[in-house]
Design brief:
mainly alpha; about 0% strand; 2 helices; elongated; about 80% helix; about 80 residues
């Protein structure tokens, strides 16, 4: 379910909201695909019984990318909402 502004908001707000979403959508989608790839790699590493420190490193990398995505979303939210 996606969040869409209510009609009670001003047209200026709606315009800014749409710009913020459109600006970050490609980067967010790319990072989401990267994260999905990382999670698939982690699953393969676990299946292949890879050294636990290496698995932990990959998990931390995925967490870092998710945190970056969250920061992008929250920064935009603070800017326009």
């Amino acid at each position: 379910m996606t969040h869409t502004p209510q009609s009670v908001y001003s047209s200026e707000y709606l315009h800014l909201y749409i710009i913020m979403i459109a600006t970050n959508t490609p980067a967010l989608k790319l990072n989401l695909k990267k994260t999905a790839g990382m999670l698939n790699k982690i699953e393969r590493m676990i299946d292949d019984d890879i050294y636990c420190a290496d698995v932990a490193q990959q998990i931390n990398a995925a967490i870092g990318l998710l945190k970056k995505m969250n920061e992008m979303i929250l920064t935009d939210h603070i800017s326009c909402c």
